[in-house]
Amino acid sequence: MKQVKTIFSGIKPSGDLTIGNYIGAISQWAEMQAYNNCIFSIVDYHAITVKQDPTILRRRILDITKIYLAAGIDPQKSIIFQQSTVPAHTELAWILNCLGTYMADLKKMTQFKDKAGDRQDAVSVGLFDYPVLMAADILLYDTQSVPVGEDQKQHVELARDIAKRFNNEYGPIFVIPEAVVRKEGARVMSLTDPSKKMAKSDDSANSYIALLDDIELAKKKIIKAVTDSGTDIDYDPAERPALANLLTIYAALGNRQIPRLVKDYAGKGYGEFKKDLAEVVAKFLGDFQDKFKQISDADAQAVLEQGREKAAEITQVKMEKIRAAIGVR
Ligand code: ATP
Ligand code: LTN
């Protein structure tokens, strides 16, 4: 029998969720909830590390809630909540900022270096401190596993380091979490530049397929996606990363194995492959969007309120122990 674990993960409402978010993160969450205690958050305080329009942010929080539900996350089995409605997250982030995290840790984070680029002095302190808030999210719930895409592994490692340092100083308060990364699809790449990951905040909308994209538009994006030189269909991420990425998307959304796809497309060219992939994506999006449309804003709000109550209860107990351990109570 599988051991029941506590699972925590989250997505920030910083753009329209893409098939990368779905394949790398959300699709494994729905599978995990059957036999684990799962907590899934819409991490809005992570989104404001870069500027957001308040009206759009509010809309996205509800849309992501609906996306979680449409992807099969069941609020009777899992806790679904909005990070900013549970104040313990920011409170613990502050404590961990002071006790357990060093400047050198954060300076090493590749996401920060990528996002800040050569403007490190001009980005918000929040963008720099972001991994500490993420560590707080994870550690508050005694989380054992954190299902994320490849890009977030480093942040989970940091949460582990922070937890160990804190425990060394104050006793066994935190459970040491572990990242869980899919074998295939942990890093879906941009459709316009296969050396970059597909990201919802990318400037070019052709680089990603959003879960709520118009279906005809999504098909066009697949047809236009860059391919490598060569004409046959073969899986070789090092030599032919663009094609390997399209095969990964095909396998994940079409429920097929990559070796099987390679066999089926032997002797066929990119044109036919892309046309079929466009249909697979269209079918997936069509089914997904049908489910999405059946969920009202009021349903989403009710789910968030129910989740907030459960999360608040768990975190209140945890925060009392943490405050007592460090001597502020
Ligand atoms: P942003 O562009 O705003 O940085 P993002 O699209 O990278 O956002 P996040 O909110 O940072 O998305 O990530 C949510 C989850 O989706 C994380 O677990 C992350 O690892 C996963 N994820 C994001 N992009 C991809 C991708 N291209 N392939 C696989 N997983 C991904
Ligand atoms: N930093 C993550 C989002 C995130 C998260 C978390 C993921 C915030 N808190 C806790 C897992 C667990 C990201 O950018 N994808």
Provide the residue-averaged pLDDT: 96
For this structure, the quaternary state is: single chain
> Which strand-content bin applies to the residues?
5-15%
Major β-sheet, in short? 3 strands, parallel
Given the helix and strand composition, which structural class is it? mainly alpha
- Helicity level: 40-55%
Q: What is the overall shape? A: globular
Provide the CATH topology of the largest domain. Rossmann fold
Q: What number of structural domains do the residues give?
A: 2
**Ligands bound, unique:** adenosine-5'-triphosphate, L-tryptophanamide
- The SSE string, one letter per element, is EHEHHEHHHHEHEHHHHH
CATH superfamily descriptor of the largest domain: HUPs
Count of individual helical segments:
13
